[in-house]
Amino acid sequence: VYLMKYLKEFKQNPIVRFNISLDTLDRAKYRVLTGADKFDKVWEAIETALAMDFKPLKINMVAMKGMNDDEVTDMARLTIDLPISMRYIEYMPMNSEGNKLANLLTFYADDIKAKIESELGELIPLARKDGEDPAVRFKIKGAMCELCFIDPMRHRFCGECNRMRLTSTGGLRPCLLSDTRVD
Length: 183
Known about the structure:
Strand order of the largest sheet: 1-2-3-6-5-4
Helix content: 25-40%
Strand content: 15-25%
Distance between the termini: 25 Å
Mean pLDDT: 86
Number of helices: 6
Shape: globular
Number of strands: 8
Radius of gyration: 17 Å
Structural class: alpha/beta
Largest sheet: 6 strands, mixed
Order of helices and strands: HEHHEHEHHEEEEE
């Protein structure tokens, strides 16, 4: 939502890539999922970032049954003609309430892949590079960019994870599923 405000500053610094969270391409659904009517701001920032040559952009989508699972193929189509790498992330319960919802909401990576393949054809596996994030990478034949699947629910990869997360309050977290935080 605030990306547009910082794009010029990012361009003047050595930031060449970043991830953008976008769980839907539907404005009304975006409002329901986020509680804010800000889809247009996010999409404008994506278009501006592409025009400013931030390539490839990584878009993260938490795919959820009954909420946005009908859009996984539309999101995959973005990779065909745009320098956008789509990253599908399984819904991860973050607390006991989330654990109760996991069976209802989790749209597993294997099911996402099958849905995309049924509509867009076979996904071509890409080799994993050393030190790379835990995503399993594929490409649609002839596509400009890749599709990535992050599937912590069925294929635990904690032992391979090399990511740190910087929170909006300046905390450094080694894992989203841990309360461990360094100021």
